[in-house]
């Protein structure tokens, strides 16, 4: 890509996707005026709407547009209209697994954060929630026990057994570790690597390779933590975590636990990135068809997905920081959609567009 | 065993073991007077003290006494004096793994409970902690990915890989499921079985066999939950959990997270049971050599281990209930050892013997 032009494939998708994407584009529009960057946006169908318009969830035209782009800004897909399709044709599976496979998006980045002023949403005790929580789980997404061969069933009667293989190569561990250490450089220079090296051979190799990668990042502090201890430490001392590096299974557990700790899943973005730094950025939540079209969905996860895209695929921490600061300010100013408010204060809820406008003007003034 | 006589091998061990065991025996003594039971106790060396007196952590004489008993009441083992021995001769490994292997103690039962009045110790938000948490994690301990073959390392260079095998037979799943359903009958008649059946073949078989066992327990409600979801649900809705049935790895994670949720690890007992209902009962915590001999250790985990023994190996729910009720009352009356008190109230701390006496007299009056 040219230094200051970012080509973005915009895929709003279904449900609340289009309305929250509109707010993210509003913010990108302000960023263009404020910073020395140009966004070349091209919008394409994906998911259910692509099934309706093109006969499949990931049409060739959409895939071609993604290939021509520097990054994919993804909304959300799926809804009741398409639930009765065969599993492999359904919006979520066909679109997301299709894109992940095509671009080898082997890393999943899931930030989780308790925002100042929103501590009461966390299921953690007030003093612990207020001690701070701002983490990024880096999960390997394409190997490990979910995909390792052999897996299956053998034997008969009571001796019949099911089996799965946890498996990682040095190469697979190295590339996800590099993603984690690079991310740490953009954050607070700390990596906690989660494993079970006291009992798993895969973890012993994991630890060796992570130690090796760490040598290239002397400014980053590395700590190893067993998975069972990590699930405990997250509850009691959440502020010790910056980047958390995990295999597929352990990352599945730690990223979900971390999201729950924030108590505000609707605020969480995510990214899937390949070895070239090409990535797909999307809200961690779903398409929420039950509230689509009402203008009440929270656009923050989509806006933060755009900020992640700018940080990780375009390496512009300054712009990402400005957007994230505007989000923090907005939440702190109480400009909140309904799901963040206690029931008795729901009438103070702001609309999707009001929240987007507020964030955009804060970025403009930054 | 004769209906009303229970033969117990008492193994106090090292560190705080002997002093907390003395309080458990105090309670058993009161139980004998109060209920229609006789305890035939025989006390034996185990762990470090057995190394000093007999040259090994699990002497033949101790093992023979355990074989002659109906259950093992275990204290704790290990300390600085023995840390430089070869790993397989160390007190923890040699004594506990030796007993587990010899008696095929394939199930690990770990209760976790937030006691009324002690909600502030939990890292969970006050309203969630007060909603209640009283669970029993039943973990398979001798199979699964920690022991499955093959495991190792192969290949060279960047394609070198580490691998482990998750593996369960129908027989292995069935026997741990039976432990869980039987335990549910002694509690609130609910089992949540934790797996990852959407991606693991081992979990698909696990779910099948658990469903099959459930048919024999129509009065017990069964629910399946994915491991990633379970780690989240424990934080937000802890009171939905009664018995939690887990494979070895998932149980390692869930039992530790559950213990942390209570915020009072010093109160937690545990049990390891075989197919014949023979079991080893011990505090979940360690030998705490740093506070040994000062009379300040909390005896409750040891006393609750004795209650579990009476419930699970002797099937006397009435006696176990009476002991557990006395513990609840003691905590509620503020008869607390120092580690349960905030720093500014430490001078109100009761001694090990004072807490034991208080519980014993409550059982006597019950
Ligand atoms: Mg998950
Ligand atoms: Mg553990």
From TrEMBL, chains A, B:
InterPro entries assigned: IsoCit/isopropylmalate_DH_CS, IsoPropMal-DH-like_dom, Isopropylmalate_DH
Compartments where located: Cytoplasm
Keywords: Amino-acid biosynthesis, Branched-chain amino acid biosynthesis, Cytoplasm, Leucine biosynthesis, Magnesium, Manganese, Metal-binding, NAD, Oxidoreductase
Reported cofactor(s): Mn(2+); Mg(2+)
Residues that hold NAD(+) according to the record: 79-92, 286-298
Pathway connected to this protein: Amino-acid biosynthesis; L-leucine biosynthesis; L-leucine from 3-methyl-2-oxobutanoate: step 3/4
Chemical reaction(s) catalysed: (2R,3S)-3-isopropylmalate + NAD(+) = 4-methyl-2-oxopentanoate + CO2 + NADH
E.C. number: 1.1.1.85
Keyword flag Metal-binding: yes
Signal peptide: none
Entry GO MF terms: 3-isopropylmalate dehydrogenase activity
Subunit structure: Homodimer.
Family under the similarity heading: Belongs to the isocitrate and isopropylmalate dehydrogenases family. LeuB type 1 subfamily.
Biological function: Catalyzes the oxidation of 3-carboxy-2-hydroxy-4-methylpentanoate (3-isopropylmalate) to 3-carboxy-4-methyl-2-oxopentanoate. The product decarboxylates to 4-methyl-2 oxopentanoate.
Name of this protein: 3-isopropylmalate dehydrogenase
Organism expressing this protein natively: Catenovulum sediminis
């Amino acid at each position: 890509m040219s230094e200051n032009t970012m080509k973005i494939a915009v895929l709003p998708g279904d449900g609340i996707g289009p309305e929250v994407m509109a707010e993210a584009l509003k913010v990108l529009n302000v960023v263009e005026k404020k910073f020395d960057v140009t966004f070349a946006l091209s919008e394409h169908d994906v998911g259910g709407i692509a099934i309706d318009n093109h006969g499949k969830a990931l049409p060739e035209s959409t895939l071609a547009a993604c290939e021509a782009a520097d990054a994919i800004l993804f909304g959300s897909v799926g809804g009741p209209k398409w639930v009765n399709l065969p599993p492999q044709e359904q919006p979520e599976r066909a679109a997301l697994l299709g894109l992940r496979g095509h671009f080898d998006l082997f890393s999943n980045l899931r930030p989780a954060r308790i925002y100042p002023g929103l501590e009461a949403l966390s299921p953690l005790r007030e003093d612990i929630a207020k001690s701070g929580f701002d983490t990024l789980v880096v999960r390997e997404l394409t190997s490990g026990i979910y995909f390792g061969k052999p897996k299956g069933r053998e034997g008969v009667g009571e001796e019949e057994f099911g089996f799965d293989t946890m498996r990682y190569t040095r190469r697979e561990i190295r590339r996800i570790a590099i993603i984690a250490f690079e991310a740490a450089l953009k954050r607070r220079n700390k990596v906690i690597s989660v494993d079970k090296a006291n009992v798993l051979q895969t973890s012993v190799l994991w630890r060796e390779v992570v130690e090796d990668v760490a040598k290239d990042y002397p400014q980053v502090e590395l700590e190893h933590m067993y998975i069972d201890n990590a699930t405990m430490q997250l509850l009691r001392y959440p502020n010790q975590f910056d980047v958390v590096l995990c295999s597929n299974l352990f990352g599945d557990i730690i990223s979900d636990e971390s999201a729950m700790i924030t108590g505000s899943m609707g605020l969480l973005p995510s990214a899937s990135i390949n070895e070239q730094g090409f990535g797909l950025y999307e809200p961690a939540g779903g398409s929420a068809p039950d509230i689509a079209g009402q203008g009440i969905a929270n656009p923050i996860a989509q806006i933060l997905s755009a900020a992640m895209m700018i940080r990780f695929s375009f390496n512009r921490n300054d712009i990402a920081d400005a957007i994230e600061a505007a989000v923090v300010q907005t939440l702190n100013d109480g400009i909140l959609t309904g799901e963040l408010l206690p029931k008795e204060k729901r009438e103070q809820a702001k609309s999707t567009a009001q929240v987007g406008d507020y964030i955009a003007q804060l970025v403009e003034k930054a």
